[in-house]
Specification:
Radius of gyration: 19 Å
CATH architecture: 3-Layer(aba) Sandwich
Number of helices: 9
Structural class: alpha/beta
Largest sheet: 8 strands, mixed
Strand order of the largest sheet: 5-8-2-1-11-13-14-12
Number of domains: 1
Strand content: 15-25%
Distance between the termini: 37 Å
CATH superfamily: Acetylglutamate kinase-like
Oligomer: single chain
Length: about 290
């Protein structure tokens, strides 16, 4: 679509109040799943993040990479095994998880940000002992629960004008490496940073009353409404832990948490800088 110069100027003017409200504040973006698998979509997300950074918003990008881990394990002839949705991670698998997340995925995203005009620095939860963890269950191996978040490496990089890109591998005092759920890490990091907003990019429109009808999107949910939505089956399956992580972020002080469809081009900009918005917003209370 072609726009006149006047129309372009009007779009910028309409975004101005939102830019002003977010300037010098932190937005945490959790990025993963199917939104990462397409290069065109990946470029769209990176453009959104760079734009927000250039207008004075401090963006922290936290990523998963389950499909990339599975691909790497398949290439080395190691079968992926899951228990209740969690990847069983023995010592060898933990090395491959670190290789895929802190290596390939992390540096690809850093490179993408640079290619669209941004400045990014890649980190893992091991750097500066940013994420300290303990073993969740012996049967799961090196799947970790977060004990502590050290936000100093993140704030140091933000203060230097870079976008931190964080892979969710963690460590303990003994030097063990742990695989950490990216949704959980994002909610804890957002809370520790005192983020204004957390955006969880998924491959669905948000929370729907009827999963077959996009018009039944629930635009706003107070966290005390979540148990009844789970009991009624509106929130079910893999969305339950994702929504609970959103609630945890709100309980840790994040003012607004969104679940949005990362497959839609420029979904972050639509959510943050327009009246329209998209997805489902979680808040402390209505």
């Amino acid at each position: 679509m072609d726009y006149t110069n006047g129309q372009r100027a009007e779009i910028l003017i309409q975004a101005l109040p939102y830019i002003k409200s977010y300037t010098n504040k932190i937005i945490v973006v959790k990025y993963g799943g199917n939104a990462m698998l397409n290069d065109e979509m990946k470029r769209s997300v990176m453009c959104d993040i760079v734009l927000l950074s250039l207008v004075g918003i401090k963006v922290v990008l936290i990523h998963g990479g389950g499909p990339e881990i599975s691909d790497l394990l398949e290439k080395v002839g190691k079968q992926s095994k899951f228990v209740n949705g969690l990847r069983v991670t023995d010592a060898e698998t933990a090395e491959y998880v670190q290789m895929a997340l802190a290596g390939k995925v992390n540096k690809t995203l850093v490179n993408k940000i640079g290619s669209v005009g941004g400045k990014a620095m890649g980190l893992s939860g091991i750097d500066g002992h940013m994420i300290t963890a303990k073993r969740r269950d012996e049967a799961l191996g090196f799947v970790g629960d977060i004990i502590k978040i050290n936000s100093s490496p993140i704030t140091d990089i933000l203060d230097k004008g870079y976008i931190p890109v964080i892979s969710t591998v963690a460590c303990d005092a003994a030097g063990n490496t742990y695989n950490i759920n990216a949704d959980t890490a994002a909610s804890r990091i957002a809370g520790e940073l005192g983020a204004e907003t957390m955006i969880n990019m998924t491959d669905i429109a948000g929370i729907l009353r009827d999963v077959s009808d996009p018009s039944t999107l629930i635009p706003t949910i107070a966290i005390d409404e979540i148990p009844s939505l789970i009991d009624s089956g509106i929130i079910s399956g893999g969305m339950i832990p994702k929504v609970r992580c959103c609630a945890e972020a709100v309980e840790c002080g994040v003012k607004k948490v969104f679940i949005i469809d990362g497959r839609i081009p420029h979904s972050i900009i639509i959510e943050v800088l327009t009246d329209e918005g998209m997805g489902t917003m979680f808040v402390k209370q209505r």
